[in-house]
């Protein structure tokens, strides 16, 4: 059976895309020399975020430096001078961006009911957050919405020494389990689901109906994740309790193989999980805000 369920944070528990666009929109409206409309400049910031976060995840710069690079590229679009040194760039982030961003954080409405339902199961799985974001800020988000108490751990590249998609094995080790007894829930089909299944976990795709990167309606069906991949597709986090309940797909045993046999005294492995049946989404159920889906190897868990 499944021992641990890992949760992505941004786009899964908290609406990151919506917060970013709201924050930048507010900043642009307060900037008299902005060179374009709020929507256009928010999209430009989003693209810079992806580029420089990738540099951070690849080890090319620190988290603080990735912010500086982002701000240095963005300020000319606001019609503002670029500070000459790191201190000025850090000050802009701390004084202009982060307050607006934090004010715009929103927790998805299905999160708390899902976590509470999992906790009421006869044998509840352990829960952890696995995110590529900054540890302090990610914990602040969870604390803001009263979610920290539900999680045994909040794991980031700082603790693990690697980021998703390479972090799944390290995350399992940190939680004293094996991939075959772990599941990962996320809204990005590639980084959260395909990469997790490649590492031996059960991938649970939270299809929020909106592509995290483009903001367009989801077009992928989740197919093509690999012949041996175990992928469950859900449209609301509240479906997790049913998957993890006795007799559900996350509770079934997997046959153990020599390749995935845990060490002596360690946990047993789980059971092969079939694809969960997918209920077609009615037009009225397509949510707004952010999701994250197909074809994106870069995780955007950050500010």
UniProtKB/TrEMBL annotation:
Keywords: Hydrolase, Magnesium. Residues 245-303 are annotated as: Disordered. The keyword Magnesium applies. SUPFAM superfamilies: HAD-like. The lineage of its organism: Bacteria, Bacillati, Actinomycetota, Actinomycetes, Kitasatosporales. It comes from Kitasatospora phosalacinea. This is Hydrolase. One of its GO terms (molecular function) is hydrolase activity. PANTHER family: 5-AMINO-6-(5-PHOSPHO-D-RIBITYLAMINO)URACIL PHOSPHATASE YIGB, N-ACYLNEURAMINATE-9-PHOSPHATASE.
């Amino acid at each position: 059976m499944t021992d641990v369920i890992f949760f992505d944070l941004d786009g899964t528990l908290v609406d990151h895309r919506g917060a970013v666009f709201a924050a930048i929109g507010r900043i642009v409206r307060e900037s008299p020399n902005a060179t374009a409309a709020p929507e256009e400049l928010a999209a430009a910031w989003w693209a810079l975020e992806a580029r420089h976060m990738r540099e951070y995840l690849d080890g090319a710069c620190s988290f603080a430096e990735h912010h500086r690079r982002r701000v240095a590229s963005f300020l000319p679009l606001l019609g503002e001078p670029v500070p000459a040194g790191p201190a000025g760039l850090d000050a802009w982030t701390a004084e202009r961006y982060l307050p607006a961003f934090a004010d715009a954080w929103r927790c998805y409405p299905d999160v708390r009911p899902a976590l509470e339902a999992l906790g009421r199961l006869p044998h509840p799985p352990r829960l952890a957050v696995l995110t590529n974001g900054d540890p302090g800020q990610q914990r602040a988000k969870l604390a803001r919405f009263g979610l920290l108490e539900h999680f045994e751990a909040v794991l980031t590249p700082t603790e693990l020494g690697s980021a998703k998609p390479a972090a799944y094995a390290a995350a399992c080790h940190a939680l004293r389990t094996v991939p075959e007894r772990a599941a990962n829930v996320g809204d990005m089909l590639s980084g959260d689901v395909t990469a997790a299944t490649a590492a031996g976990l059960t991938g649970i795709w939270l299809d929020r109906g909106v592509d995290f990167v483009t903001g367009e309606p989801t077009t992928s069906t989740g197919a093509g994740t690999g012949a041996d991949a175990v992928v469950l597709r859900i449209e609301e986090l509240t479906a997790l309790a049913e998957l993890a309940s006795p007799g559900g797909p996350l509770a079934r045993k997997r046959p153990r193989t020599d390749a995935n046999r845990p060490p002596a005294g360690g946990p047993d492995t789980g059971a092969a999980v079939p694809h969960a049946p997918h209920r077609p989404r009615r037009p009225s159920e397509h949510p707004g805000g952010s999701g994250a889906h197909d074809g994106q190897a870069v995780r955007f868990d950050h500010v």
